[in-house]
């Protein structure tokens, strides 16, 4: 819906300088808004800013877990091929002297994000080491376009709290908290501390599988506990190859003597339990007087996973949807937000947005999808329909093809899919497409 209203520029606070915050800042500025990005960390990158130190000492000299944002472990490599990840106008190309693999290690993605910042001069908008402690409505009674926000932020060193007023807040903080029990994969970094241990890895997720495969060389025994024993061909192959890796059912209970009981009555005595049970949404600084809430990992109500009908477009969220090709989707969200704030476009009525949310929830219920998977979309058509709200290009066929072939390959060949693939035809099409040729000779795709 394109509106006739006069365009205007707003003072916008973006929380977070990860991939979604960075692209949000770029799109907002392009649309003429004044943007300040708050980032609690010392650099850009979000999850991709690897933090090796996860333990510290408290005042009593006791070892404690530090509060770190990144869940990335040392050996982590991308699960999606680099070609599909790039923002539309900034392909993620291999560069000489860097990690040129198609599924590079995490630090290569950080370098890509740093290049993105450099190319679009984003750093000047970012206040580093500055955490947003509070964002709440200035005048609770005023909704919609006239809504303004009080933002209180604290700089790490000075501990000084600064209070400012913004026209809009864009929350771009990804999945902030982990379901913490024993030890969560969030604080797993390297396999060495588990040498000769019996380890139970709970959760057959991508990180659960990655960590188990890494532990086979150091741990005595690894028990990978999975909700379903009906696992992919790739995982079955890995399990049959390693004598010390076992698949077992869900954990029933933990005993004080160190035994871990499984639901089928079997048990093992474990030295360590690593929970790879996923991450949760959490916005501790955000005060919406209950208008937006997180309930069993459903952030809502959010129209198109982005806008709370009562507070939009003044409040918006980038980066909530999961299981889709992330970066271009974040970019389309950012464009829509920017154009709504400038008045170039308008949202449907609040009632219509609420109705759309209700229908979405209903369709998920009917499909038997649990509430905590509300934002797991896994749907290319959805990305295209979403983009249509703001005239954003549809996903290229090669992007979809490369994404699907990587998923299929991972399913069948878990240990090797990142280094051995048979999608070279689609890859060639990708490299010859305008997405890759737009940079001219600056960089070379592999
Ligand atoms: C282990 C792991 C592996 C992954 N692998 C892949 C992959 O292979 N491919 C893929 O596409 N995606 C992958 N992802 C998904 C990944 O989360 C996204 O790629 C992306 O990082 C999400 O970007 P974001 O900006 O929304 O959030 P984040 O990257 O989490 O960034 C959020 C930023 O907000 C900051 N912040 C939070 N709260 C505040 C506050 N109050 N004040 C100021 N700053 C704040 C944080 O410090 C952080 O910098 C992976 C995720 C994990 C955890």
TrEMBL record:
Q: What does this protein do?
A: Catalyzes the conversion of methylthioalkyl glucosinolates of any chain length into methylsulfinylalkyl glucosinolates.
> Annotated Gene Ontology MF terms?
flavin adenine dinucleotide binding; N,N-dimethylaniline monooxygenase activity; NADP binding
Give the protein family: Belongs to the FMO family.
Question: What InterPro entries does this protein's entry cite?
Answer: FAD/NAD-bd_sf, Flavin_mOase, Flavin_mOase-like, FMO-like
- What is the top-level taxon of the source organism? Eukaryota
Return the protein name. Flavin-containing monooxygenase
Task: Alphabetically list the UniProt keywords.
Answer: FAD, Flavoprotein, Monooxygenase, NADP, Oxidoreductase
SUPFAM superfamilies xrefs = FAD/NAD(P)-binding domain (SSF51905)
What's the cofactor? FAD
Keyword Heme found: no
Question: Is Oxidoreductase included in the keywords of this UniProt record?
Answer: yes
Q: What is its EC number?
A: 1.-.-.-
């Amino acid at each position: 819906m394109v509106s006739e209203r006069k365009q205007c520029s707003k003072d916008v606070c973006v929380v977070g300088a990860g991939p979604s915050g960075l692209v949000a800042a770029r799109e907002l500025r392009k649309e003429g808004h004044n943007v300040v990005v708050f980032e609690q960390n010392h650099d850009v990158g979000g999850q991709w800013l690897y933090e090796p130190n996860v333990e510290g000492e408290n005042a009593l000299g006791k070892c404690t877990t530090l509060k770190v944002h990144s869940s990335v472990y040392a050996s982590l490599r991308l699960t999606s091929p680099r070609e599909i990840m790039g923002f539309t106008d900034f392909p993620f190309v291999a560069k000489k002297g860097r990690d040129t693999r198609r599924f590079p290690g995490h630090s290569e993605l950080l370098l890509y994000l740093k290049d993105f910042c450099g190319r679009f001069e984003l750093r000047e908008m970012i206040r580093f080491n500055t955490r947003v402690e509070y964002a709440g409505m200035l005048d609770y009674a005023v909704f919609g376009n006239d809504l303004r926000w009080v933002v209180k932020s604290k700089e790490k060193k000075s501990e000084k709290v600064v209070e400012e007023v913004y026209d809009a807040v864009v929350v771009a903080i990804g999945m902030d908290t982990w379901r913490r029990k024993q030890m969560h994969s969030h604080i797993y970094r390297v396999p060495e501390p588990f040498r000769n241990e019996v380890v139970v890895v709970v959760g057959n997720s991508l990180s659960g599988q990655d960590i188990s495969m890494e532990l086979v060389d150091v741990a005595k025994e690894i028990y990978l506990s999975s909700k379903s024993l009906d696992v992919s061909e790739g995982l079955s192959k890995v399990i049959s190859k390693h004598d010390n890796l076992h698949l077992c059912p869900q954990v029933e209970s933990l005993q004080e003597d160190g035994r871990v009981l499984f639901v089928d009555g079997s048990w093992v005595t474990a030295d360590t339990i690593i929970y790879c049970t996923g991450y949760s949404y959490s916005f501790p600084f955000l005060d919406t007087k209950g208008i937006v809430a997180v309930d069993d990992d459903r952030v809502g109500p959010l129209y198109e996973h982005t806008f709370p009908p009562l507070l939009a477009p003044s409040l918006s969220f980038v980066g909530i949807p999961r299981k889709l090709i992330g970066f271009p989707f974040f970019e389309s969200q950012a464009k829509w937000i920017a154009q709504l704030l400038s008045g170039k476009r308008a949202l449907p009525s609040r009632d219509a947005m609420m109705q759309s949310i209700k229908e979405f929830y209903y369709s998920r219920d009917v499909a038997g999808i649990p509430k905590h998977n509300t934002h797991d979309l896994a749907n290319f058509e959805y990305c295209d329909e979403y983009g249509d709200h703001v005239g954003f290009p549809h996903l290229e066929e090669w992007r979809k093809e490369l994404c699907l072939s990587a998923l299929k390959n991972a399913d069948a060949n878990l240990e090797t899919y990142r280094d051995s693939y048979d999608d070279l035809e689609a890859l060639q099409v990708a490299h010859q497409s305008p997405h890759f040729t737009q940079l001219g000779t600056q960089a070379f795709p592999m």
